[in-house]
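Usage

Read records sequentially. Each one opens with the input sequence:
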Amino acid sequence: MAGIAKPIIAFGSLGGTITMTPARASRGIEPSLNAEGLLASVPGLGELAEVRTATLSTIPGASLQPLDIVGAVRWAQEQVDAGASGVVLAQGTDTLEETSYLAELYWDRPEPLVFTGAMRGAAQLSADGPANVLAACQVAMSTAARNAGVLVVLDNVVHLATRVRKAHSTALGAFQSLDGGAIGSVREGHVRLNASARIGVPLSAPSGDPQVPALETYLGDYGSILRSLRGSPLDGVVISAFGVGHVSTGLADEIAAAAAEFPVVVASRTGSGGTLASTYGFSGSELDLQRRGAIMAGSLDGRKSRLLLWALLGSGASLQQIRSEFGERGNG
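and closes with the structure output:
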C-alpha cells in the first residue's frame, strides 16, 4: 500500500539573525546561512513535510526594501500555484512587523503565508531559530490556518500580521499583539487557532515606489519638519500623533497645508488603542484634523499605516479610495 503523501511546504530565506553566524572581520554575527543550511538545523521537519527551499536574499532585516517583500510574495504565490500547501518566509526580526503586514496587503491565496525569524543567532547558545522554523512550518501546513491571511510565528505564538508588533529588543517573546491579542499557539506540534476574519481585499501589485516618510510628533513640535518636507518630492506622509490622534495647533496648521498637496495620515504613537474619530474637538484634535483634510488611521499604528499608504499610492489609488481603505482596515 502506498504511503500517504506529505504536504509540500515552500521555505524562503531572506536573511536576518536567524541566518547569522560569527564573522571574524566584524567580530559580530552576520548573515551567512542559506535556506538549506538553515533547515539543516531543524530536526524532524523532513518527517512532517516535503520542504522546497529558496534563498531569496541574505541581508539583515533593516536592509530589506518594500519591493523586496513584493517580490517575496510573488515567489510565494508561485510556490502555492506549483502545489505548496503553505509558505514560510524567514527574515530579520527588526522589520518583521512591517514586512509581514505589507505581505498581508498583497496575499491573495487561501494557503497560509507565515513569517518567522529568531532573536538569537544560529551559533548562539539556545538559538531559537530552529524551533521557530518548525512551528512556522507546522502552522503553514495546518488546515486551521487557511484563509487566515499572513501570520507571524515566534516562540510558539501565532500572530496576525495586522496586529503584531515587536515590543522588546532582545527577549525571545519579543513579539506581541497588543490589540486583540495573539490568535493562537503551537503546543506539542498541534496548532490551535482562534477564528479570525481578514480585513479588506488584496491590493494590486505596485507600479512604482512612492515616497512616503513617517514622522512622530513630540513635545514642542510645531510643524517645522513637516513644513520642510513639503518642498521635497514625496507622495504622502504618515504622522504618529499623541494619544488618540492629537497634535499641537502649529502642527495642525502644517497638516492642513500638506493635505492640500498629498495624503496625510494621522496614527497614534502609543502602539495600541488607535485613533478616535469623533470625541475631541479642540484645535489639533482628531475632529479638527479631519476637517483640515487628514485621514485618521484607526487601529493601525504609524508603521503599518505608512505601508498601507505606500501600497495604495503604488497601485494608483485616488484620495477617496485611500480614505475608504483606511476606514475599513483601520477599524479591524
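Summary fields computed downstream for this record:
- The first helix runs from residue 35 to 39.
- The chain is about 30% helix and 20% strand.
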